[in-house]
Amino acid sequence: MTKKIQSSVAVLMGSDSDLPVMESCIKQLKEFGINPVVRILSAHRTPQAACDFAAGAADNGIKIIIAAAGMAAHLAGAMAAHSQLPIIGVPIQAKEGPGGLDALLSTVQMPPGMPVGTMAIGKAGAKNAAVFALQILALSDKTLAKTLADFRKAQTEKALQKDAELNS
Ligand code: RP5
Question: Ligand 1, closest atom to CA 44?
Fold first, then answer.
């Protein structure tokens, strides 16, 4: 089946050191037929470029921004501050520190009225960010709704197959 190619999702990360984790998000999006815009932008190191991206994202056809960062992870919150698009945050575990809890709390603890949909820490969250983006886009796109249904069906079949193998 030929999948629809879209660039309606942006995957941002605070550093190239986040890329090994976010590869699983990018890979999953591509498997869904969504070709994301991928950028390294930091709320702290490149604040103006990050804000400019957020402010122009909707006009550039972006519908969802996925923002991953570690440590004092303010990238997703900065995106929310400068864009009305839905923002999905992925906390990244830093090499040192409290195991990603720093990034999780920095991402999830947004003030009322300024939400960031926050995923789990690390690769599980990175993959879920892709699935969650698909779920949002599938609300208004029948092709992507079918892609989502197929993904869920395959996931269920895989789990049932493992159960059957364990009990055979
Ligand atoms: C954050 O600081 C980045 O998102 C990254 O997770 C962390 C460390 O960055 P590097 O020092 O590895 O560039 O802004």
Answer: 14
pLDDT, tens digit, 9 for 90 and up, residues 80-134:
999 999 999 999 999 999 999 999 999 999 999 999 999 999 999 999 999 999 9
Best CA proximity match to 129, nearest among 41, 37, 36, 25: 25
Give the C-alpha distances (Å, rounded to integers) separating 150 from 13, 63, 121, 145: 29, 22, 26, 9
How many domains would you assign to the chain?
1
- Show the domain range for 59: 9-141
Residue 147 inside a domain? The answer is no
The answer to whether position 119 is within a domain reads yes
DSSP 61: T
Q: Which residue's alpha carbon is at the smallest distance from atom 9 of ligand 1?
A: 15
pTM of the model: 0.95
Q: Give CA–CA dist 100/150, Å, rounded.
A: 32
Closest residue to atom 6 of ligand 1, CA basis:
70
Q: Judge whether 3 lies within some domain.
A: no
**What average pLDDT is seen over the chain?**
96
CATH number at residue 110: 3.40.50.1970
Task: Report if residue 146 sits inside a domain.
Answer: no
Nearest atom (ligand 1) to Cα of 43:
14
- Report the nearest atom of ligand 1 relative to the CA of 92: 6
